Amino acid sequence: MSRNVVVTTAAPAAIGPYSQAIEIDGFLFCSGQLGIDPATGQLLEGIEAQTERALVNLEGVLAAVGLTFGDVVKVNVFMTDLGNFGPMNAIYTRHIVAPAPARSTVQVAALPLKAMVEIEAIARKSS
Fold first, then answer.
1. CATH number of the domain enclosing 32
2. Distance CA 84, CA 13 (A)
3. What pLDDT digit, counting tens, does each position of 11-61 carry?
4. How many domains does the chain fold into?
5. Residue 60: which of 10, 20, 124 has the closest Cα?
6. Closest to 49 (Cα-Cα) out of 100, 9, 87, 80
């Protein structure tokens, strides 16, 4: 059982004691991504911009180990306001590859940096 820490500049550096992702036994466990631009370190404004950036960041983490959204098997979406579900889901739909992975979407009281959305994923390498 080999545990590989994934680090990429295609996504923001961790802002706490965690890894961007951990690869183990053919699975990639990605930490939640916010709508932070990795070049500036700034959180984007608005649900659409934050969702798009969070997914692009997640894409960068996946690409760091040769994976794509087509390899994703589970997604968790955390939102501070489920009233924004429609706009988030419209952007999410443009990124996710069919068949869509399993997904949970939950409303939370708050997210780091006062973000509106955070998205994490689990992917599996094809054998």
1. 3.30.1330.40
2. 26
3. 999 888 999 999 999 999 999 999 999 999 999 999 999 999 999 999 999
4. 1
5. 10
6. 87
Given a contact cutoff of 8 angstroms between Cβ atoms, the answer to whether 78 and 32 are in contact is: yes
pLDDT in tens, 66-78: 999 999 999 999 9
Q: Which amino acid is at 103?
A: R
Q: How far apart are CA 1 and CA 20, in angstroms?
A: 19
Tokens at 50, concatenated: 């934050």
Provide the residue range defining the domain that includes 115: 3-124
CA-based diameter of the chain, in Å? 42
Three-state secondary-structure class, residue 115? coil
Q: Which of 122, 97, 103, 119 is nearest to 22 (CA)?
A: 122
pTM flag (> 0.70): yes
User: Is residue 59 within 8 Å of residue 87, measured between CB atoms?
Assistant: no
